[in-house]
Structure formats: C-alpha cells, structure tokens
From TrEMBL:
Domain ABC transporter: from-to ranges: 13-239
Keywords per UniProt: ATP-binding, Nucleotide-binding, Transport
This protein's name: ABC-2 type transport system ATP-binding protein
Domain of life (superkingdom): Bacteria
A GO MF term: ATP binding
C-alpha cells in the first residue's frame, strides 16, 4: 500500500473505520472523522474513552487493529520520524528540562528543529514568559510551565498540533490565556486536535467536537449544532426587574406572557435553556463525564 492518500488539500487528519483492541478489550470501535486546516476539533470523553489511544495512532506511536489513519496525506502505519518536523504534541508526559533556563529550553529545541532563534523571543513574549527567560524552568508555576510546553510545541510552526488535556488543573485565567494562544495558531491555518473531558472548555474553543464513549463516537458536529439537536424541551429562564426569577416552557400562552413582560418594561433578563455539551453527553450515553 502506498503511504500517501488522495485527500482534500485542506484535510490534515483522516481516520477511516479505526478500531483498536488491547488483547480482547476494545479501546476504539470503528471511528471515522476528519480534521481540516485551520480547525480545532475537540475529542471529548471521560478517562478511558479512547482519546489518548487515538492520538498515539495518529502520531505513529501505536498501531491500530483495523482501519486506516492518515496525517498530512501519509498513512500512519508507514510514517517515520520526519513527521515530527510537521506536528507538535502536548501531553501529560511533555516535560521540560528543569535545570535549564526558560530561554535555554526553547533554544535547545530550536537547534534540533533548525528554527531561527529570533522566534524564541517572539514566543516567550507572546506567552508572558519573557521576563522569566533567565529563570530555571523547574521554578515556574504550573500555568507558566504549561505555557512553556505549548510554546515549545509550536516553536517550529507545525501544521498540526495535538493537545491531550492541555489546561487540566490550571486556573481559569491561565486557561483563558492558553485558549487565546490556540485560537491564534488556528487562525494562522494550524489544525488542532484537542482531547479533553472539559465540555465547557470545548464549547468555547472548538470549531467542531466529537463525543467519545467506550470507544465509539456518539455525536460529531459544531457545539451549537449538537446542543440544538438535543434541545427537545424548549424553555426560557426569566428574570424580572423585581428580581423574581422562574422558568417558562415554550408554549403560545407563555410567549404571550414574555411579550407582555417586555411591553410593560418588566423583563430584566431572558435566556434560552438549550442543553450544554455535558447535558447532551449524559442524554446520549447515560453517564456523566467525571
């Protein structure tokens, strides 16, 4: 079999009927999806759902039991180490050299990847780490360390970035900074494959999401599409100016009530109550993410 496949020029990742078994236990069950250039795909599910296994198959670290996977048009069964010049990976095992300075950590990888050292200053300033450039990396906070690991992964401007739970355990402010960095890379054309069990994060960050449960993709689409698909019982949360708060089901009578509140100037806030991605996951699988 040739190691190339004819795909749309905008397709960066293609999985076709991928299954993976560990001895007799299935980890992935006939999954298929594609990730395009300039797209963030969220691969969402609880621990043990098969998220990390998928990344390992896509990056050539693990061989699938059946099906075909392609990255940048190359069959993952036949890729070699040169693929790492075109991809970046951030996982729980993505460590740093703690006894080296922040700057020297990136300088070391810049030499390996043949990257102009001028890019180091650019990235450290963008990540808010420039003032810490002479500090030993082992003395950084968890959030600073995660930003350094992320900057290292995009140092060589890869076409695809794999992120395995990139903001797990981070404070909201640091997580938001990382989201901004990822969106910038996406807007420059990078394809980003993000695994997480944080549905709120995925809804904010991802262009599309795939919900994974016991090795099966149970839904795939934009966060909005998926949530609206399962919005079968429409209702509205109402807050009046007198601070009275209640929920109204969607009906002709209640629409008239809402219109009257608006006409009389009594309405302070109205929210539609479509389900969250976590609500959808529970509805589809019967299980929570935690």
């Amino acid at each position: 079999m040739s190691d190339m496949v004819q795909t749309n020029s905008q397709e960066m990742i293609t999985l076709s009927h991928i299954s993976k078994k560990y001895q007799t236990e299935p980890a992935l069950r006939d999954i298929s999806f594609r990730v395009g250039k300039g797209e963030i795909l969220g691969f969402l599910g609880p621990s043990g759902a098969g998220k990390t296994t998928t990344i390992k198959i896509l990056t050539g670290q693990l061989r699938q039991t059946s099906g075909d996977a392609y990255i940048l048009g190359r069959n993952t069964k036949e890729i070699d180490s040169s693929i790492y010049e075109q991809i970046g990976i951030v996982t729980d095992n993505s460590g740093i050299y703690e006894n080296m300075t922040v700057y020297d950590n990136l300088k070391y990888f810049a030499r390996i990847l043949n990257v102009d050292q001028g890019r180091i200053e650019e990235l450290l300033k963008r990540a808010g780490l420039w003032e810490h450039r002479k500090k030993q990396a082992g003395k950084l906070s968890k959030g600073q360390t995660q930003r350094l690991v992320l900057m290292r992964s995009v140092l060589h401007q890869p076409q695809i970035l794999f992120l395995d739970e990139p903001t797990s355990g981070l404070d909201p402010s640091t997580a938001q900074e990382i989201h901004g960095l990822l969106k910038e890379q996406r807007d420059k054309g990078m394809a980003i494959f993000l695994t997480t069990h944080n549905m709120e994060e995925a809804a904010k960050l991802c262009d599309r999401v795939a919900l994974l449960n016991d090795g099966n993709i149970v839904e795939i689409g934009t966060p909005r599409e998926i949530c609206l698909k399962y919005n079968t019982k429409k209702h509205y949360r109402i807050l009046l100016k007198n601070q009275e708060e209640f929920v109204l089901e969607h009906s002709g009578e209640n629409i008239k009530k809402i219109a009257a509140y608006m006409s009389d100037g009594e309405l302070e806030v109205i929210h539609s109550c479509e389900p969250t991605l976590e609500d959808v996951f529970l509805a589809v699988t019967g299980r929570e993410l935690r």
